[in-house]
Design goal:
Length: 143
């Protein structure tokens, strides 16, 4: 009987870990699509059924306290660390969309969608107008 309980608990625990790993939520390392350099650690989290992303850490030495000089409105000259860059994506099948992403480098906002390519790779697409005109970054899960 003990063996059955132990096996059941092990399966439930490993199933919970597997489900978490198949989620967009968690910490991700962003990679600059132009240079290939690691830029930041971003946490994607859920609040009231929507997905958000906040910059937890800037990885380039000397940029740790950088502010968003090119941002407009309330983000103008605010610290990039701690800034919410994706604000309120909704789940649509296997894709999360319907919100904007902020590029702190330029201060511009773009429509975006994100999809989980595999357990450790997140596709982040920012675009203007149609999804065909834009940029894609692939973020890797931080373990």
């Amino acid at each position: 009987m003990r063996k059955i309980i132990l096996i059941t608990l092990t399966l439930l625990f490993s199933g919970a870990i597997s489900l978490q790993a198949q989620s967009i939520f968690g910490e991700w390392k962003t990679i600059d699509d132009e240079t290939g350099n690691e830029k930041s650690i971003v946490e994607v989290y859920q609040e009231n059924g929507k997905a958000y992303a906040v910059i937890k850490q800037l990885l380039k030495k000397g940029n740790e306290n950088k502010v968003c000089e090119n941002c407009k409105g309330t983000n103008k000259n605010k610290s990039i660390k701690g800034m919410v860059i994706i604000n309120g994506l909704s789940k649509d099948g296997s894709e999360w969309n319907g919100a904007k992403i902020l590029d702190p480098k330029t201060g511009k906002e773009y429509k975006c969608y994100i999809t989980l390519e595999d357990n450790n790779k997140l596709k982040v697409r920012g675009y203007i107008g149609f999804a065909l005109i834009g940029r894609t970054q692939y973020w890797t899960r931080v373990n």
